[in-house]
Specification:
The complex is a heteropentamer of chains A (304), B (251), C (375), D (242) and E (348). Chain A has 304 residues and is mainly alpha-helical. Chain A has one domain. Helices cover 69% and strands 4% of the residues of chain A. Chain A has 12 helices and 4 strands. A 6-stranded mixed sheet of chain D has the order 6-7-8-3-9-10, sandwiched between helices. In chain D, helix 3 (93-101) packs parallel to helix 6 (137-150). Chain E has one domain (2-251). A two-stranded antiparallel sheet of chain E has the order 1-2. Chain E has a two-stranded antiparallel ribbon with strand order 3-4. Mean pLDDT of chain E is 90; it is low at 338-348. Classes of the chains: A mainly alpha (304), B alpha/beta (251), C alpha/beta (375), D alpha/beta (242), E mainly alpha (348). Chains in contact: A-B, A-C, A-D, A-E, B-D, B-E, C-E. Bound molecules: adenosine-5'-triphosphate (2 copies) and magnesium ion (2 copies). Residues 40-41, 83, 159 of chain D line the site of one magnesium ion.
Chain lengths: 304, 251, 375, 242, 348
């Protein structure tokens, strides 16, 4: 029994991490029809900001050496600035391009950033020992919850609620959705639409920074590709959850995380290597049953 | 459904609800081959919804669509198009990166033709509509009026038994409207099809329709000849406005 | 007289460059030493390097280009997948291809062909060595195996470990097997399974590489699992230890110690000359393999008195525990990889690896195990 | 209020406006008519800042505004109802209206205005919490006009207000335009058909092929002949000289 | 119009692509160095692959991440049939005996491999082509991942994530050119056929296409299958050019590169697909050479290692920013008066 509860906790913890990334992907997709692969590199660079940029494999800590609050602030700031910079340089000029061009441009940005990190830090993984205390587990009624996973769950849930409220209820949120849909008209109505859209990127940077920290605390390692798989999973999550719906993105994130953990737990040993094939098959099945995703906002249904 | 020409397209007790909004509630409508039926009504009366239902883009919540007494309510939009019901859209919805001829050919191919015969049919229709010179223009370079004409031509390239036209004259100026009226009036004779015409431009409606069906709030308000409808006080109050006859309706 | 030419088709950029660069520098050092001592067969050695960019297509192209330029021997990348395309180009021209540190026997007779060699031991041998060491010297009875599916190296090390462990303690003393992916952000469910075992094992073996391996160790320790952890050679470097501050009870087999505490004097001598030449110790213990590679080939050339591939290969195939810097070296006409070269067992202490002792495995992998047939 | 002098604008190599002069005085209702492709929409886009003119000057309230971004012009009191409605389809009717009211600081007046437009277009009230993209064509057009009214601009530019509207609603729209004008709003309206405009217009411009083909006070053009000639170009040469 | 004239008109866009390619191949074959020759072959193989990708992506407008799957299937199939007779029984012991213990001649094995790729594409399409837009794209990405997981862990048949090494390398420049020609002709015939027209209509407007009696499902399925065949050919060529097959070569970075080539060139036209390959290959090769070092006025000059990737990424972004619809912007290379008319300068 405790074991099943433990499995569920593991599943939800992983799901929350994917949900966090999916929120960022979903938000930016919502405002620009851009599936931003560079989100992976926001995560990576946020994590690398913890250490001094050098080719050495054992770099001294940079932001990681600061007290917790400053460190968190610093990492978030770095990623927000990075997200804004990519928006300004690469994505803003491409606004109104078709989604495939945008997608490819985000590959290009991602490729650029990844190689930049490689140039500065070399391709060798590095490690940082921050948040050792958080990484260790607490036991509650026989169920083990690593502190960082608890944190991930809380942060994911909190940010989801905050973002949904922000978009639905605040003037700025409504403006953001308006600018997302019709940029020119938003400007005609007096909105500083460029800034409003940039804000979405800033938020995605914030989410990216949060993921950098959580991931680094969990794994203790830095790697060029550390953001890639979470973003790929998030990418699936956003689509099966229902493009354009943030709760959908989060739900999708939970589902892939949970599916992954359950398969890992319950598949026989010989089939465990094929765990991810199971997860992706599930993605396809969900799409076949609900091509629009699990949560379809009425706004997403276009009338003829 | 086979493609032999159909004689009658009918909506029987069609109702459509979107959540709490009842866009149509129990509308009967019948269109015969060879006639031009006008469909008018205030904004939001359910006209476009009716066309969507008839062309398979919207499942009715209740009621049925019949083609010569065969229930087609469950068929997909494509199947209904192939069965001989063509439609145009309120926005033109052309294949913008393709040429005019290709736009028409697509419909001809959809009707089952091979590439070459499709092209011939397309050119024939363009010729008939006086658009032959524009066959090889890309649609994103067309003027607005031409766009609307091409969208009608594309519907006709299916060689349908019934053509459903949604506000074909919107955004056209007076002269263009007149040309369009002439065109629509000749459709039954050239293609042997029935035409359902939605328009807010009363000149066009009154000028070409033999019969007019009025919708209001998702319900049938009246049906009759243009003259009857024009004089019908209910229609005037709900739709035309009291000043109507002295200006817009002058035939 | 014309110089002897050695070509290096190795990764100078891309992720593989991190693995190629250290042994490459050591190889250059050896070439310089030979040249200073009067050369090989009285001829100086020249070398040229081309970058494979960690791409297979590039590897094939630069391999062909180097061979075209008339090299006598081609040194190829550390990794079988990226070394093989260059090695094939060498094979077509009848030249020897020598991989810096591929741990896959396919970099040899049965894979690339009879002219291909690797300076490393088979990954299975690492697994066997640490398994035997744990049983015999550490007195551990049961074990749990965590296999990272990222690369074949991991799978081979795990296969070797299981075979070695079963040979000593029986199949049933392996209490369980589980898999994970190197880039999994969390191995929570693997930990749950491990903790849920009816009896806890005496140790955990992880066949993995960084960063996933480091992350797994961190998560195991964070979950309160304080069992001894055994690992494979690829985890040998100190740099990842930051991820698990205060790590204890972590053992693995290594080529040599970079910290001056290697019990074998020849290793320390190598370390000193590396410091003298480059001003720093090698960044990775794989370094010595590159040095030894040149050493082995040069020795064979000297014996054969020619650089002709066939003659040199004949000499090399006759190596039987031939003493070289990297350790006793054997090749046969069937095996061009080491299967029982002694390992330096190392453990982590005070956030650094420390030499424990040299251990040579007694169980030798057969062909079936080396190629993991029916595993 | 608005002074356009020698303005040209185009798309790539295509010059859609060729040196157009046009003025709108405060409190006027100026209509621009002309056949398809005449450049009417281009003119409005250029004035509203969506397109940059390639030549000429545009002054609004005495200050030149050519090249200013649309959000700044909006703050100066210039509103545009563009062609094709441009409502926010994924937002609700309520949110569409809120977005328009956001730049206003007078909250109470904005709330009152909102009631006023909902009375004017009752269908919007019944669809208040529905998604705007699901509205019918005519309902969307009503929403677009309502939104512009809510902006409470000094001058409103409308591109084909009657597009897709039922005849009765067109009457209402024109009636409310007349009222807004009476309350001091300046209007620049593009229309396709000349039938309805004469009794509301102060002045009329006829645009053809990017030129102003005819310009005059509505009363002068009341018989409609000159207008039609200019419109359809029977006497293009003559009209241009006029 | 005379008949032959019409034929010439019809084929002109193909000739305009193929003739320059032939010239490049002939010149490099005669005068180029080894490295250049190999680059040209790589380029021609990329053309086969990207044109194959274009048949589906370009015509349907749906980005597919899944095409590397079909290449991998073909490449592995070819490896099973032709590779390393000695090693197969050891390293690929799970193969059925008729494959494990013998080699199959090159041509039949290539054909079988391509058929297998096309068949796999057909089956995949049968399931996935009900989806549209982003859902379809994502599901193809899922297929890519599934195949990758399966092939990297099906050790006894695929050798896991290790490369299968030692395939016969029979791909010459002219063979690659012939295959590129074939791919281009197939793509052209398809896109000008009724099927091609139908699927292009669905790309422009799914709703209007349905109203015109076009089946989204079938037209996409046909395109998907056909492009599966063509990329399968690309997979076979690549396998027998490199002599190695590795599942990691058919994964994300490859997929991204192929898509990038297509979109940089302009995914709306065949000419764009080819132009994208040529331009990207040229840029990559140019900077690769710069990085390796060139002699300028006696001195060696090179850009720092690793900057090549940065520059290429920046370059691609610039192309996308300044030509939003790619280099060819969705147009074919037509005869002069034709382009004039198509651009619609003659206004109505
Ligand atoms: N998908 C939908 N969701 C919610 N409401 C809808 C939807 N489609 C239509 N409606 C509502 O149904 C009613 C009928 O719409 P329809 O488009 O049929 O009107 P119409 O008669 O064509 O009007 P118009 O003349 O303005 O084009 C409208 O009030 C509209 O708001
Ligand atoms: N986005 C565009 N790109 C290229 N050309 C355009 C664009 N928009 C308009 N044009 C062209 O510019 C010219 C003027 O167009 P404009 O839309 O201003 O005309 P209009 O008078 O508003 O016509 P309508 O009555 O059809 O709305 C036309 O020839 C049109 O084809
Ligand atoms: Mg309608
Ligand atoms: Mg206009």
């Amino acid at each position: 029994m405790a074991n099943i509860v433990q499995v569920l906790v593991d599943a939800i913890a992983l799901g929350s991490l994917y949900a966090l990334v999916a929120l960022a992907i979903g938000l930016v997709f919502g405002v620009m029809r851009l599936i931003n692969f560079a989100q992976a590199d926001y995560i990576t660079i946020g994590a690398y900001a913890l250490v001094v940029p050098t080719a050495s494999v054992t770099p001294p800590l940079l932001l990681g050496a600061l007290p917790a609050a400053l460190m968190i602030g610093g990492v978030l700031l770095v990623v927000v600035v990075l997200a804004l910079a990519t928006e300004r340089v690469a994505f803003r000029p491409l606004r109104n391009s078709n989604p495939s061009t945008l997608l490819i441009s985000s590959f290009a940005v991602s490729y650029f950033l990844q190689n930049l990190v490689m140039l500065v830090h070399t391709g060798r993984p590095k490690s940082v020992g921050i948040g050792q205390g958080l990484a260790s587990a607490v036991e509650i009624a026989g169920v083990r919850i690593p502190g960082v996973q608890l944190l991930t769950m809380v942060v994911a849930a909190g940010l989801l609620v905050a973002l949904v409220l922000f978009l639905k209820k605040t003037p700025l949120g409504i403006q953001m959705r308006a600018a997302a849909e019709n940029f020119q008209m938003a400007r005609l109505l007096g909105m500083p639409a460029n800034r409003v859209i940039a804000l979405a990127f800033a938020i995605s940077g914030l989410l990216g920074g949060a993921v950098s920290l959580l991931l680094t605390i969990q794994t203790g390692t830095l790697d060029l590709r550390m953001g890639l798989m979470p973003v790929v999973y998030a990418f699936f999550a956003t689509v099966i959850g229902g493009m354009g719906s943030l709760p959908g993105a989060a739900l999708g994130g939970f589902l892939v995380g949970v599916a992954s953990v359950l398969l890992q737990t319950y598949l026989p040993p010989d089939l465990r290597p094929f765990r991810d094939a199971g997860v992706f098959t599930l993605v396809i099945l969900i799409l076949l049953v609900r091509p629009q995703g699990l949560i379809v906002t009425s706004a997403a249904k276009e009338r003829v | 459904m086979s493609r032999s020409s159909k004689e009658r397209l009918e909506a029987r007790g069609v109702a459509v609800a979107f959540g709490g909004i009842r866009a149509l509630s129990g509308v009967d409508l019948s269109l015969k081959r060879g006639e031009i039926l006008g469909l008018i009504g205030p904004n939001g009366a359910g006209k476009t919804t009716m066309v969507n239902v008839l062309s398979g883009f919207q499942r009715p919540t209740s009621g049925a669509i019949r083609l010569d007494d065969i229930d087609v309510s469950r068929l997909s939009a494509r199947k209904i198009a192939q069965a001989g019901v063509a439609r145009s859209f309120q926005a033109a919805r052309l294949f913008r990166a393709m040429t005019v001829e290709q736009n028409l050919s697509v419909a001809a191919i959809g009707a089952g033709l091979a590439r070459r015969p499709a092209r011939e049919r397309a050119l024939g229709i363009l010729d008939w509509m006086g658009l032959a010179g524009k066959a090889d223009l890309r649609c994103d370079s067309l003027s607005y009026g031409d766009e609307r004409r091409v969208s009608i031509a594309r519907a006709l390239a299916l060689e349908p038994s019934f053509a459903l036209l949604d506000e074909p004259a919107s955004g056209m100026n007076d002269a263009e409207c007149e040309a369009l009226m002439e065109l629509i009036a000749r459709l039954p004779e050239r293609f042997g099809c029935g035409v359902l015409l939605i328009e807010h431009n009363m000149k066009v409606i009154m000028g070409v329709c033999e019969r007019i069906h009025v919708l209001d709030g998702g319900q049938s308000l009246a049906e009759g000849s243009p003259a009857d409808i024009q004089m019908n006080p209910v229609v005037r109050r709900a739709y035309l406005g009291e000043k109507a006859s002295d200006r817009t309706l002058a035939i | 007289e014309d110089p002897i030419k050695i070509g290096f088709a190795i990764a100078e950029s891309g992720w593989l460059s991190n693995y190629d660069s250290a042994p490459f520098k050591a190889a250059v050092m050896k070439i310089e030493e030979i040249n200073k001592a009067g050369g090989l067969l009285g001829r100086q050695i020249e070398y040229s390097v081309m970058d494979t960019k960690t791409e297979q297509a590039r590897a094939a192209t630069v391999g062909a280009q180097l061979v075209d330029g008339g090299v006598d021997m081609l040194v190829v990348s550390c990794d079988y997948d990226f070394g093989a395309p260059s090695a094939l180009a060498a094979k077509q021209a009848g030249k020897i291809a020598f991989s810096l540190c591929a741990a896959d026997p396919k970099m040899g007779v049965q894979g690339v062909g009879p002219l291909a060699f690797t300076a490393n031991s088979a990954a299975q041998s690492e697994g066997i060595a640490i398994a035997e060491y744990a049983q015999k010297k550490m007195n551990l009875k049961t074990v749990y195996v965590l296999e990272d599916l990222l690369i074949e190296y991991n799978k081979s090390a795990c296969a070797g470990f299981r075979a070695g462990w079963a040979a000593g303690g029986g199949e049933e003393s392996i209490l369980g097997n589980d898999t994970f992916k190197n880039d999994d952000p969390s191995i929570a469910s693997q930990i749950t399974r491990l903790k849920g075992l009816a009896t806890q094992p005496d140790a955990v073996f992880i066949c993995s590489v960084t960063p996933g391996g480091a992350s797994a160790v961190r998560q195991l320790r964070a979950a309160g699992i304080d069992l001894p952890i055994l690992a494979s050679t690829a985890m040998v470097d100190n740099y990842w230890l930051n991820a698990v501050p205060g790590l204890k009870d972590f053992y693995l087999p290594a080529f040599m110690s970079l910290y001056g505490d290697d019990p074998r004097p020849e290793m320390n001598a190598f370390l000193e000359s590396h410091k003298a030449r480059y001003g720093e110790p090698p960044v990775s213990s794989y370094s010595v393999l590159g040095y030894s590679l040149i050493e082995q080939w040069a020795y064979a050339v000297e014996q054969a008195k020619t650089t002709e591939s066939e003659a040199v290969v004949a000499v090399m195939n006759g190596f039987k525990d031939q003493p070289f810097t990297a350790g006793p070296t054997s090749f046969t006409d069937q095996l061009h990889i080491q299967v029982d070269r002694p390992w330096l067992i190392m453990k982590v202490e005070n956030d650094s690896f420390r030499a424990v002792e040299v251990y040579r495995n007694s169980f030798k992998p057969d062909m079936k195990l080396l190629f993991r047939v029916g595993q | 209020m608005l002074e356009i002098r020698g303005v040209s604008a185009g798309y790539g190599r295509l010059e859609a406006l060729k040196s157009v002069d046009l003025t709108v005085a405060k409190g006027e209702v100026v209509f621009v008519v002309g056949p398809n492709g005449a450049g009417k929409s281009t003119l409005l886009k250029t004035v509203s800042g969506l397109m940059a003119p390639s030549a000429g000057t545009i002054a609004f309230n005495g200050e030149t505004i050519a090249g200013e971004p649309p959000e700044r012009l909006c703050c100066r009191g210039l509103a545009l109802v563009p062609e094709g409605r441009s409502i926010f389809r994924t937002l609700t009717v309520e949110e569409n209206l809120s977005v328009a009211a956001m730049i206003r600081s007078d909250r109470d007046a904005a709330a009152a205005d909102r009631e006023r437009v909902l009375d004017l277009f009752p269908i919007l009230r019944s669809r208040y919490h529905g998604v705007a993209g699901h509205l019918s064509g005519g309902e969307q057009q009503q929403l677009a006009i309502a939104r512009a009214i809510l902006q409470r601009p000094l001058m409103m530019m409308i591109d084909e207000p009657s597009l897709g509207l039922a005849p009765l609603v067109i009457d209402q729209v024109y009636e409310s335009l007349r009222q807004l004008n009476a309350d001091g709003l300046t209007l620049l309206v593009v229309e396709q058909s000349t039938a309805r405009i004469l009794d509301l217009a102060s002045r009329i411009y006829v645009l053809r092929n990017g030129h102003v083909a005819l310009e005059g006070a509505a009363c002068d053009l009341a018989d409609g002949h000159a207008l039609e000639e200019a419109y359809f170009g029977y006497g293009a040469g003559r009209a241009a000289q006029a | 119009m005379m008949k032959s004239d019409a034929v010439f008109h019809f084929w002109f866009p193909v000739l305009a692509i193929v003739v320059p390619l032939a010239v490049i191949v002939a010149l490099t074959d005669q005068f180029g160095g080894l490295s250049l020759q190999r680059t040209v072959i790589e380029m021609l193989i990329s053309i086969v692959i990207v044109v194959g990708l274009y048949i589906f992506v370009g015509n349907s407008g749906i980005i597919s991440f899944g095409h590397a799957t079909f290449m991998a299937i073909a490449a592995y199939a070819s490896a099973w049939q032709t590779c390393c007779e000695m090693l197969k029984p050891i390293t690929m012991s799970g193969l059925p005996p008729f494959l494990r213990d013998q080699s199959i001649p090159l041509l039949p094995s290539a054909l079988v491999s391509i058929l297998l790729a096309g068949g796999a594409a057909f089956l995949t399409g049968l399931v996935l082509m009900r989806l549209t837009g982003l859902a379809a794209s994502i599901s193809t990405l899922a297929v890519l991942f599934i195949l990758n997981v399966v092939y990297s862990n099906w050790d006894s048949v695929t050798m896991g994530s290790a490369s299968i090494v030692g395939l016969p390398t029979y791909v010459t420049a002219w063979l690659a050119f012939g295959c590129a020609l074939l791919a281009i002709v197939v793509a052209w015939l398809y896109q000008t056929s009724a099927f091609g027209l139908a699927i292009r209509a669905t790309r422009e407007d799914e709703v209007a296409a349905a109203a015109s009696g076009i089946s989204l499902y079938w037209s996409r399925l046909i395109a998907f299958t056909l492009s599966g065949f063509v990329v399968g050919l690309g997979g076979v060529l690549q396998a027998h050019f490199l002599g190695t097959v590795s599942i990691n070569n058919f994964f994300l970075s490859f997929t991204f590169l192929a898509l990038a080539m297509l979109i940089v060139g302009g995914m709306g036209s065949l000419a764009g697909a080819v132009a994208g390959v040529v331009v990207v290959t040229t840029i990559v090769d140019l900077f690769r050479r710069l990085e390796a070092g060139i002699s300028v006025g006696g001195g060696q000059w090179s850009i720092p290692a690793g900057t090549q990737e940065l520059i290429i990424a920046a370059f691609m972004l610039l192309i996308l920013i300044f030509r939003k619809n790619g280099i060819m912007a969705g147009r074919e290379i037509g005869l002069p008066q034709h382009t004039h008319r198509e651009k619609g300068l003659v206004h109505g």
